[in-house]
Structures are given as C-alpha cells and as structure tokens.
Amino acid sequence: MPNEKRYDILIVGAGPAGYTAGLYAARAGRSVLMIDKGIGGGQLASTFRIENYPGVSGEIPGFDLAERMKTQALQFGAVFSQEEVVGLVPDNDLFVVQTTTDTYTARAVILATGASPRKLEVDGEARLTGRGVSYCATCDGAFFRGKNVAVVGGGNSAVEEALFLAQFANEVTIVHRRSELRADKVIQEEAINNPNIKLLYNYVVASIAGEDKVTGLNLASTAGGPDKFLPCDGVFVYVGNIPNSQLVRGLVELDEQGFVLVDDELQTSLPGLYAAGDVRHKFLRQVVTACSDGATAATAAAMYLSKKGA
Ligand code: NAP
C-alpha cells in the first residue's frame, strides 16, 4: 500500500473519550493518531457549562475543558488530524483506516465517535432546522435574545441548556412528555426556581408550525388533556442521542439501539478494535465516564499490542 501512514493506535473521534485515549496511549509509549471530522471536543465542546467534572470546581465552559484535554494529549505526543473517516477494514493484524483525504494503518483502533442528537421526527422539524429549530443552544442561543423559546426533553441536556437559554431569552418553556423530569435534582431545582423558565409537563410535540421560521409548537397531551398551541420563536430539541456507530455496523456486535457492545477492557467483538465513550453500550454517559473509557481502552489496546509483541 503506497503512502499509507502507520500508527500503533488510531483513535476515531476526539471528544473526551478520544482525547483521554490519546493521552493514555501516548503515555504508554505508542504512536497515536486522533482523527475527528470537526475541530474536536465532541458534544462537550458545545455544552455551555460543566460543573460535575471532578477536580474542576465551579463552572467551566465545555469548550474550555475539551481544549484542555486536547492540549494535554498533544503535549504527550498524540497527533490530531481533522479528517472524516469513511472506512475501517481489518487486514490481517492491522486495520486500514480510510479518510476522505488519506489512508492510514493501525495495529489497534479505538472508536470514540460519540453520539448525535436524536430528532423529534415531526412535521416541520426538517424544514425549519436552522430557521428556529436547533439542537445546540450554545451555538444558536444568542439569536433568541429577548425572544420566547421552547426546549423539548426532560433529561440533563434539556434542563442544562434551558438554564443557559434563560440567561438571554425572554421566556423558556421546557416541554416534557411526563410529569417528572429525568435530569439531576440539583439542576431541576435551579430550573424550577428560575423566573424565566416555565415547565410544561405531559405534552409531546405533534408538529412545528411556521412557514419561513418557527412560530410555535402544536402540542399533544400525553395525559388525556386538550391539545394546545405554544407560540415561540425557537425550539431546542434535547430528546436523547443516537450512537455514531455506522463505521462498524456489520463489523462488530451492537445492541438493539446501535450502541457498540464491549467487554470489561472495552474491546469489541473484533480483537484490536475498542470502543469508548457515548458510542458504546453503557450505564452512565458523562464526561467523567467518557474519560474513564478512554483511559481503559487505551491501556487495554497498548497491552494487547505488547502481548502480540508489537
Ligand atoms: P436523556 O437523558 O436520554 O434524556 C432524553 C429526554 O428526552 C428524556 O427526558 C426523555 O423522556 C425525552 N424524550 C425522548 N424521546 C422523546 C420524544 N420523542 N419526545 C419527547 N421527549 C422525548 O438524554 P440527554 O439529556 O441528551 O442526555 C444524554 C446523556 O448525557 C445522559 O446520560 C445524561 O445524563 C448525560 N448528560 C449529563 C449532563 C450532566 O451531568 N451535566 C449534561 C448533559 C447530558 P423520558 O424522561 O420520558 O424518557
């Protein structure tokens, strides 16, 4: 294979799991490449604040924490490249990793591609995306200064990002399908006590209204109540995530939702291929557990290579 670039460990995806894997693999003395189709940081980079990463007390913007992780991995010799990986093929003892611009070979690969926002899949959503429908409050929130917005979902993301939006929107309405939020109690209380945030329980979005821009949400009751129309200028959707596991579909075992199944060392069903962070089947998806995964996968991958004499 002419011009292929060789690494011991290649990491696909550079969020907290990927960066930590890069740090640990580099410190294990391995040549490491971290590839991301964007600038890196994953979902962490667009998270407005993090206040539960141990050792970082107070609040830190997600972007800043991600940048610190990247700097640390680079300091120990990991290499970062912004490219999109389009193919991953096992070839004897190696993996051939194809990007849109290059071909690499690696002795072990760590998949740390994370997850992407789940869509509501309702009428108006696709047409009005970028015209009032958004999946990233940190990216688009500033466009809604003094306006009324809705946030759909009841998990940590929905409540955290509603708190962010409440800083400059006129009014934020959290629309949740049940009568109880799923988010951690501490931020639930913050939202409940925020004068700019209203909670609307037991409703789902039936469709998003608006011609050129969002004008409101048609809501259907989940508790037998009347349907209603919620006028708003924007809607931020936080109804969970879907795994970015397309690259390994058909190559390794996935669960029924598409998350990658791994063993205790985070090895997939294919030896030498590991999965770390939100892309894998796991109990708790947090920055700290993504980092933990990165450390485990990199250490296991380095030991796997040592055992093979590589
Ligand atoms: P999540 O925890 O899966 O919550 C998704 C929310 O959307 C749930 O409240 C769910 O309702 C609702 N939902 C799902 N499908 C829906 C639909 N079709 N229509 C209306 N509502 C729907 O997702 P997330 O909040 O994005 O968080 C993802 C992971 O990251 C979680 O593990 C979370 O803890 C973690 N995270 C942590 C932090 C933090 O610790 N600060 C911040 C952000 C994210 P039900 O409750 O009824 O299921």
Features:
310 residues, alpha/beta, FAD/NAD(P)-binding domain, 2 domains, seven-stranded mixed sheet, five-stranded parallel sheet, 6 helices, 17 strands, binds NADP nicotinamide-adenine-dinucleotide phosphate
Structure description:
- The relative contact order is 0.18.
- The two termini are 20 Å apart.
- The protein is 22% helix and 28% strand.
- It is built from 6 helices and 17 strands.
- The chain has 310 residues and is an alpha/beta fold.
- The model has no long low-confidence stretch (mean pLDDT 96).
- The protein has 2 domains: 6-116 and 241-307, FAD/NAD(P)-binding domain (3-Layer(bba) Sandwich); 119-237, 3-Layer(bba) Sandwich (FAD/NAD(P)-binding domain).
- The strands form 4 sheets. Strands 1, 2, 3, 4, 5, 6 and 17 form a 7-stranded mixed β-sheet that branches. It has a 5-stranded parallel β-sheet with strand order 8-15-9-10-11, with helices on one face. Strands 12-13-14 form a 3-stranded antiparallel β-sheet, with no helix packed on it.
- The structure holds NADP nicotinamide-adenine-dinucleotide phosphate (NAP).
- Residues 52, 120, 152-158, 160, 177-178, 182, 204, 238-241, 285-286 line the site of NADP nicotinamide-adenine-dinucleotide phosphate.
- The site of NADP nicotinamide-adenine-dinucleotide phosphate has 20 residues, from helix 4.
